[in-house]
Amino acid sequence: MWPFTTPYPELPLAHLSDEYDYIVVGGGTAGCVLANRLSAPREASPRVLLVERGPVADTWLSRVPLFSSDFASDETRTLRRPMRPQAALEGRPMQAYTGAVLGGTSRINQMLYTRGLPEEYERWKETLGKDDDGRAEWGWEQMRRCFLKSEKADVEVEGVHSTTGLWRNRTHTEFYFKGFNEVVAAAKDVGLPYIPDVNSPTHPPFGCARLHVTIDEHAHRHSAYDAFLPKDLALQRARAGTLHVCTGTIVEKLVTEMSESGQLVVTGVVLGPTAERKEGRARSRVVRAKREVLLSAGPFGSPQILMLSGIGPAEHLKELGITVVQDVAAVGSNLQDHFGVSVGFNISMWDSLLSLEKWPWRFFIEFVRYLIWGTGLLLVPVLQLAIFTHSKLLNERGLPIKTEKVFSEDLPDIEVMPMAYESSDSAIGQYIPRTAGQFSFLNVLLAPLSRGTVRLTSADPRAPLDIDPAYLSNPADLVPLRASLKLSLRLRDRMRERDYEMRDATVPKSESDEDLDAWIRTCNRTTYHYTSTCRMGSLDDSEWDGGAVVDSRLRVYGAPTVAVAERCAEMILSEEQNID
Ligand SMILES: Cc1cc2nc3c(=O)[nH]c(=O)nc-3n(C[C@H](O)[C@H](O)[C@H](O)COP(=O)(O)OP(=O)(O)OC[C@H]3O[C@@H](n4cnc5c(N)ncnc54)[C@H](O)[C@@H]3O)c2cc1C
């Protein structure tokens, strides 16, 4: 670092105050938003502490999209956790990936900025109903206002995009690989329209959509950290005394007490050094929260902290000798991921991101192009399109049925991601040969019925977790994946008919159910979208294991002074500026 620049205002554990109004646990995608909104200057601003286990690690390389995406980045910002060998996937061991750095997983992800469909948020409204004051909190209109408030798009489109928020997003101005133009044409041929803006609420739910990415005007990754907690803002707030950011520190557990009325109250957190720093002199200490503790430690960290604090499935906690303070069965249950299955082809090297690895001269040209114009392959345009459809709208051969509204399904259950690169999991040894360019279709299950768990292995906050995504534990998940694989192969056929050269490399033996299922069980991967381990809903929601963990205000059932926020936290806060 240049010796005269002011460093990021990180406070070590020993220098923290004893008490804050709010403590935000986990400085990731949601945590950066929470810290920003809560510590915003206003009359009697509350004092906020943000605790993050990872470092700030803000270097030039960490901002270049290609070098900062997980598959190309170093290990300093990524936490890879082993998951249980998967029974339905021939016992294959897999890993879960999350960011462990200020900005969290938004510092290592693919930067795709894709909203849900209005209908999805309307379903939340139906399920969650209204709050105590009779207001609906989660419908599309509420979400639309929040999206518009938080985003800073290239161009304002009334009711769709705004340019006044903090989080930059944009589309690439061109398709960087010829294969993507061919996919658009092939999709149109089979009856899936081109959707130029995936985030427009009026686009059809099924089609081939151009994606948005969170890249700023300097061609840098724009993570939640860059958008909501950049250095200048953190310095201002630190000077004003409204925000302290403590990195390299974990929350070991919550401090809980029983109020006189018999209500469980969370009064603070126990902080300690990370496993890597444990050998040093840092010791654990308690910091109190006058108002609330907000958990935004991600799909593994948040249930872990709740369970270590005695809030979780009672039987599991007892087995580990943890005193149960609140039996909340759904904590750590209902783990879901968008399971993905890949088919791969060899194409011209020029048309593939692999060319950057194979041809140093091309890398050099692209590097210079990036430095001078901020364009080119270093923006990692490996994925610029996604095809959304419902498996029931595909016929036996995987082609869309032309008649509209034959079925009542109005939300996609599969997504096909065309990639100018390999997309299978490198753990299984099923690779597209690297002697020519690589192209693949990653078939993603959008509405999985299989549900897994996150459990503790010990009462030690630094011990590894037992993560079981239970992929395909519900065999009904095979059905949409079969349809999606067939659709991918039909797109391949159309692309070939258009004289785009694609040689089969990693594809199923045949399109019989048996061969497709065998393929699904071997050529698969995580797509890193772990969710629902602290799900929002009602306690008596019998479709889900244990119902839910938080209510529609994100407050933990039975412990209302602790709230859990994933990425959706942005929505509540941007509406209200405060969670009180
Ligand atoms: C490789 C990859 C690519 C992806 N691509 C996309 C994409 O293109 N588009 C998209 O929308 N989604 C993508 N995702 C998913 C998306 O990025 C995540 O779902 C989202 O960022 C999660 O946000 P979060 O705030 O819930 O958790 P995180 O951003 O993971 O934040 C949790 C934070 O809590 C910290 N923490 C955990 N435990 C503790 C503790 N005990 N004490 C203190 N701190 C703690 C962690 O270090 C972390 O920084 C991708 C994910 C990955 C891994």
TrEMBL record:
Q: Which residues bind FAD?
A: V101, T105, V251
Query: What Gene3D superfamilies does UniProt report for this protein, alphabetically?
Result: FAD/NAD(P)-binding domain, Glucose Oxidase, domain 3
Cofactors needed by this protein, per the record, are: FAD
**Record keywords, A-Z:** FAD, Flavoprotein
Q: Where are the transmembrane segments?
A: none
Q: Does the keyword Metal-binding apply?
A: no
Per the database record, which ranges form the Glucose-methanol-choline oxidoreductase N-terminal domain? Answer: 298-312
Q: Which InterPro entries match?
A: FAD/NAD-bd_sf (IPR036188), GMC_OxRdtase (IPR012132), GMC_OxRdtase_N (IPR000172), GMC_OxRtase_C (IPR007867)
PROSITE patterns, per the entry:
GMC_OXRED_2
> Per its UniProt record, what SUPFAM superfamilies does this chain match?
FAD-linked reductases, C-terminal domain, FAD/NAD(P)-binding domain
Keyword Lipid biosynthesis recorded: no
Q: Which GO terms describe its molecular function?
A: flavin adenine dinucleotide binding; oxidoreductase activity, acting on CH-OH group of donors
> Which family, according to UniProt?
Belongs to the GMC oxidoreductase family.
Protein name as annotated: GMC oxidoreductase
